[in-house]
Amino acid sequence: MELAGVAPIAADLESELIAAYPGLVRRLALVLRDSHEAEDVAQAAFARALERRRLFRGGDARAWLYTIGLRLAFNELRRRRPTVSLQAADEPSWAIASDPDLWRALAELEARQRAALLLSVLDGYTHAEIGRMLGVRPGTVSSWLSRTKGRLRVLLGGDD
Amino acid sequence: MSDFDRRLRSRLQRLEESVPDPQPLALSEFRRSGRQRRRQAVLLLAATIGLLSVTSLAALAMRPPPDPAQEAKNAAEEGLVLQDLATQEDGSCRSSEDAVALFQHRLNALGLDHWSIRDDGRTLDAPCISGGVIGDSQEILLMASMGGRVASALDELALDLLQTCHNRDEAMERLRGTLVQSGIPEPQISVGGVRVVPNDSAGEYLEQLGKGCYLYAGANPNQTGRYTWYVAGR
């Protein structure tokens, strides 16, 4: 029994989760396309991670939290009722101020493909790692990434 | 990495960084009420969650590392059970025995013999019993519930308090009256502070709080299932 080690490990994990939380909110804002909803789901994910900290086997706590958060987000998306296309007025000011073309181009992607793109391009996770996080095969991730980049290349005019 | 990839990465970084800073996490709340938040996440009987339904999410009991095939099977079964039990919801307040009987009956009907019903002892003082459907552990966890009829009455109260400004005492009295009339004889009520802000009416909610109005702010069961109902205000 390594009882002495339990508390510090738990505290370390909590610290890592806290550090990863703002990033998760931002990531989910791009996946869910709603920063308020992203915060709500991120809080649920954080709570879930704390509840299940004993199940954490070590490694990348951020990836673990992101996995929980993304899956909750996909669940939430599945539950959403179909909505009409977003009007320009519905677009968040922060996105429009930053990069409206990219924001609108990302809307063309399916949420899980959007998530895979972000995990690959921004975080550098491998296709296998992304597959584990999103619950799909690595080959599916490869296919998604190829397709989404091709689509963005057209939408953003990124020929090189 | 191509030029396009580099540019895409740079633009995505900037876009992600432009997302507004989230509110700081209230850690004490998470540590204290982790179970309640799980309840929000897995609650079966939606009528019992009132204002907290903004974060209602399906059960997703993470067990890293996940096996995609098994996880897909669990998720499918979870959806099946949720869908089935949703048709059984009539707003009634079930005892533990009644809830277990209902859940077992429905699991049998669905042919899910490998599923179980778990009572972790945290519903001893609960006014009613609900269930959380957790696909990953193939179980229905018994959970405290205030009951669908109470929740419906509280939904109406929440809307009323949102539309009409009430001071602290008035709001507390309205809440107490609603609960007593709904069959909770001695409700435990806590007043003050802001606990949750409902997504679907956040602007209105915060505006009312800013005017000094007091609003219904949800409820939490404790470790034995006894509820505290909250009134928020500053």
Word description of this protein:
The complex is a heterodimer of chains A (160) and B (234). Chain A is mostly helical and 160 residues long. Chain A contains 8 helices and no strands. In chain A, α1 (3-32) packs across α6 and α6 runs antiparallel to α7. Chain A has helices at 3-32, 35-51, 61-79, 93-98, 100-106, 111-121, 127-134, 138-156. Chain A is 73% helix and 0% strand. By secondary structure, chain B is α/β, with parallel strands linked by helices. Chain B has 2 domains: 3-145, no CATH class; 148-232, no CATH class. In chain B, β5 and β6 form a beta hairpin. Chain B is flat. Mean pLDDT of chain B is 77; it is low at 32-65.
Uncertain runs of chain A with pLDDT below 50, 5 residues or more? 1-10, 81-89
Order of helices and strands of chain B: HHHHEEEHHEHEE
Number of E-state strands of chain A: 0
- N-to-C span of chain B: 53 Å
- Range of strand content of chain A: under 5%
Structural class of chain B: alpha/beta
* Discrete helix count of chain A: 8
Report the C-alpha radius of gyration of chain B, rounded.
21 Å
State the share of residues found in helices of chain B, binned by percent: 40-55%
Shape of chain B from CA axes?
flat
Number of separate strands of chain B: 6
Relevant terms:
heterodimer, A: 160 residues, mainly alpha, 8 helices, globular, disordered N terminus, B: 234 residues, alpha/beta, 2 domains, three-stranded mixed beta sheet, 7 helices, 6 strands, flat
